[in-house]
């Protein structure tokens, strides 16, 4: 029996070309409202993944995201925001996309069909059982992702997947399968829409929760963010003032000297 992709089924809307601009936008928005509920149903699996990652990351483990097309770009995006936001090394969360960096700006859809490439790329990073490899695939069928996850499991590396179809091939080779079933897209098969939004939300949830649990947030503030722009320097200065009560000029000088609120506060201990 062929695997049925809910993400590819017919849209609930038709004759889109005859709709007014407002009707199109209302329809898209109505579909987008369903995304958060689909993600909510997957919270138990997301929580299990975070609980697995945290102790491993404290011991030097990493997160790897693998995907193709929109899914790959979302993984790379999430990974790229971890160093400036939380002051973590760029190697702590790594995003890999089928087709490499060129695929970030230009569609290279054929790259997703190589079942061996993902594993080859992971080996360049010396992936180990301390790491966690997360496959991101809206369809749940991407060969680049499924092949890499299968090889990871065979080598004792913990795997997870994020997909938008139930019981997919990618889920079958994952230790934890996160499935946000968002249903048909407004434009049939355009998974950069609801499915992409769901994947982005889940990636945000994973890394944010992990960073909090490994101590990169204090209270509700990003004390380890890199103070690399005037906006962030000002924000960091205000954080130091709130924590210490010191004068503005002194707090700003500490921000500029240490480059993060955490490091500045540590210097005062």
Structure described in brief:
The chain is of the alpha/beta class and 269 residues long. It is 49% helix and 9% strand. It has a five-stranded parallel sheet, sandwiched between helices.
Which features would summarize this protein structure in a list?
single chain, 269 residues, alpha/beta, 13 helices, 5 strands, globular, Etherase_MurQ, SIS_dom, ether hydrolase activity, lyase, carbohydrate metabolism
Q: Which structural class matches the secondary elements?
A: alpha/beta
Q: In angstroms, what is the radius of gyration?
A: 21 Å
Mean pLDDT: 94
The strand count comes to 5
Helix content: 40-55%
Unreliable segments of 5+ consecutive residues: none
The backbone outline, from C-alpha atoms, is globular
Could you tell me how far the N terminus lies from the C terminus, measured between alpha carbons in angstroms?
64 Å
Major sheet: 5 strands, parallel
**Strand order within the widest beta sheet:** 2-1-3-4-5
In sequence order, what are the helices and strands, one letter per element? HHHEHHEHHEHEHEHHHH
Secondary structure tally, helices: 13
Q: How much strand?
A: 5-15%
């Amino acid at each position: 029996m062929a695997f049925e992709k809910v993400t590819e089924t017919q849209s609930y809307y038709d004759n889109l070309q005859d709709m007014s601009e407002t009707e199109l936008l209302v329809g898209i928005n109505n579909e987008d409202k369903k995304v958060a509920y689909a993600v909510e149903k997957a919270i138990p699996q997301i929580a299990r993944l975070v609980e697995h990652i945290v102790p491993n990351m404290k011991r030097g483990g990493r997160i790897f995201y693998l995907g193709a097309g929109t899914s790959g770009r979302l993984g790379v995006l999430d990974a790229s925001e971890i160093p400036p936001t939380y002051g973590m090394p760029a190697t702590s969360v790594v995003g890999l996309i089928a087709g490499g960096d060129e695929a970030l700006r230009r569609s290279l859809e054929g790259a997703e069909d190589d079942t061996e490439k993902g594993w080859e790329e992971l080996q360049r990073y010396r992936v180990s059982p301390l790491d966690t490899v997360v496959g991101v695939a809206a369809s749940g069928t991407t060969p680049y992702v499924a092949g890499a996850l299968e090889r990871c499991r065979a080598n004792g590396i913990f795997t997870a997947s994020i997909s938008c179809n139930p019981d997919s091939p990618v889920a079958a080779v994952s230790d934890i399968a996160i499935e946000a079933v968002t249903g048909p897209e407004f434009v049939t098969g355009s998974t950069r829409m609801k499915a992409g939004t769901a994947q982005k939300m889940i990636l945000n949830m994973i890394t944010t929760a992990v960073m909090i649990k490994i101590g990169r947030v204090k209270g509700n503030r990003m004390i380890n963010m890199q103070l690399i722009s005037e906006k962030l320097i000002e924000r960091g200065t205000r954080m130091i003032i709130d924590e210490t009560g010191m004068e503005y000029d002194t707090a700003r000088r500490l921000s500029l000297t240490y480059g993060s609120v955490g490091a500045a506060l540590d210097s005062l201990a």
